[in-house]
Design a protein that fits this description.
Layout (H helix, E strand, L loop, with lengths): L1 E3 L3 H11 L7 E3 L15 H8 L3 H5 L7 H9 L11 H10 L4 H11 L7 H11 L3 E6 L13 H4 L3 E6 L5 H20 L2
Parallel strand pairs: 1-2, 2-3, 3-4
């Protein structure tokens, strides 16, 4: 079974669609495989960068690497921001601020643009191989909105969808609930 979240979702789906015989189940947490999941204001400047990878479009994304943006990723959409450890954004930001790392992150934003062209392949994998799938999604996520969770049900018969009242990093606020759902789901589907 593989866990798909954020940047890791396309990596996992590339692996799963290449070696479907190795995948017994999927757990998807704010991990996108559908156009609906990147059809919001957050993605507009990133899509502009994909379409025209100019210096100007690249620089327009640099703000996404700021401390305020990192804090926002962890706290936006959560029910109680006081429950989210500042260690998250302090550690992440320290890593983002290492010399040269912001350029790597901007390169990754551009590279992420290779994923939407693969959505039809991943959707075909889901339809053909029907891996049992648990979806636990932060419903208030503005990076990968909940609109990206629902389309999985078009392609999968054995899918369990839980929209949680939290944001992008759902584990930070709903870790116990997600763990409980995963244990029940994996006990049922992975032997």
């Amino acid at each position: 079974a593989i866990y798909l979240q954020d940047y890791g979702a396309p990596i996992g789906l590339r692996l799963a669609s290449t070696h479907p015989e190795r995948v017994t189940a999927l757990v998807v947490q704010n991990g996108n495989a559908y156009d609906e999941g990147i059809d919001n204001a957050f993605w507009k400047p990133i899509k502009a960068y994909w379409a025209m990878p100019t210096r100007e479009n690249r620089e327009a994304l640099r703000g996404l690497l700021s401390r305020d943006a990192t804090i926002w990723q962890y706290t936006h959409g959560v029910c109680d921001a006081s429950r989210i450890s500042p260690d998250n954004w302090n550690i992440d930001q320290a890593l983002l601020d290492r010399p040269g790392n912001q350029e790597i992150q901007l390169d990754m934003f551009l590279s992420y643009g290779s994923n939407p062209a693969l959505y039809p392949k991943w959707q075909a994998y889901l339809r053909e191989h029907q891996p049992p799938t648990l979806i636990v999604w932060g419903e208030n996520d503005q990076i990968f909105p909940a609109a990206g969770a629902h389309p999985y049900r078009r392609d999968l018969k054995d899918v369990e969808l839980h929209l949680l009242d939290t944001g992008h990093f759902a584990l930070e606020e709903e870790g116990q609930q997600i763990a409980d759902l995963m244990l029940t789901f994996l006990d049922k589907h992975v032997h």
